TrEMBL record:
GO molecular function: rRNA (uridine-N3-)-methyltransferase activity
Lineage: Bacteria, Pseudomonadati, Pseudomonadota, Alphaproteobacteria, Rhodospirillales
Main subcellular location: cytoplasm
Keyword set includes S-adenosyl-L-methionine: yes
NCBIfam families, per the entry: PRK11713.3-5, RsmE family RNA methyltransferase
Protein name per the record: Ribosomal RNA small subunit methyltransferase E
Family matches, as InterPro entries: Alpha/beta_knot_MTases, PUA-like_sf, RsmE, RsmE_MTase_dom, RsmE_PUA-like, tRNA_m1G_MTases_N
Signal peptide: none
Location of the Ribosomal RNA small subunit methyltransferase E PUA-like domain: 34-68
């Protein structure tokens, strides 16, 4: 028995509706032509985070541009509320892992925070955004997580909504394990994970004084920062039915 062919899924910023022909930029054109060996007439799935997901037919495919005509909507647009993730940027490969897995685990917003021990203070935001788009394409999300500009840790409370719980992964503080604490909390939540080496004591003291913060630990072992972020998000989503 032959396996059904997987239809390529692409993010497209243009509006999507039946019969509309939309332009695809150099990135999607290169992927379709050089990587996937697609041809005019092939079907693709398009989404923009606003209009749901659409089956479309390639009408033009060049080296630097392509176009596709929307045929029918395969999925209506849905809200996809999820946890927020505030994190101290790591070095390249480990940062890539955090961003990729955060998208797959349903994170709604990512906020890079600069702490005393942050390793990477010069983020390539365009590159991170492309990783987010690639991840959303792959995991079949209908929405695209928001990526905020980096901010100092001490300013996080200024941009964090008062109605959203801030779970602080505090590995060296005496606090309740995450899985035990979550059932007692309600409403939207987010996670803050520190850098390699952890937060400084003064930073934790400042966070502990915030009315929105809840300190949690992630078990008896000290985890690397990328492991902590991914593991904690997985627990949060699992207990939330995701």
């Amino acid at each position: 028995m032959s396996e059904s062919k997987t239809i390529t899924r692409l993010y497209c910023d243009a509006d999507l509706s039946q019969g509309l022909t939309v332009a695809l930029g150099p990135g999607p054109a290169h992927k379709l032509r050089a990587v996937l060996r697609a041809r005019v007439g092939d079907e693709v799935l398009l989404f923009n985070g606003r209009d749901g997901e659409w089956r479309a037919t390639l009408t033009d495919l060049g080296k630097t541009k392509a176009s596709a005509e929307c045929q029918d909507q395969t999925r209506a647009q849905l809200a996809e509320p999820g946890p927020w993730l505030a994190f101290a940027p790591l070095k390249k490969d480990r940062l890539d892992m955090v961003v990729e897995k955060a998208v797959e685990l349903g994170v709604e917003r990512m906020i890079p925070v600069l702490t005393a021990r942050t390793e990477n203070r010069r983020l390539k935001m365009d590159r991170l955004l492309q990783q987010i788009l690639d991840g959303a394409e792959q995991c079949e999300r209908l929405t695209v997580p928001t990526l905020s500009e980096p901010i100092p840790l001490e300013k996080l409370a200024q941009v964090w909504p008062q109605g959203r719980v801030l779970l602080v992964a505090a590995e060296r503080r005496d606090c309740t394990p995450l899985a035990e604490k979550l059932p007692s909390l309600t409403g939207p939540m987010g996670l803050l994970v520190g850098p390699e080496g952890g937060f400084e004591a003064q930073e934790l003291d400042g966070l502990e004084n915030l009315p929105i913060s809840v300190f949690v630990n992630l078990g008896p072992r000290i985890l690397r920062a990328e492991t902590a972020a991914i593991a904690a998000l997985a627990v949060m989503q699992a207990l939330n039915g995701e």
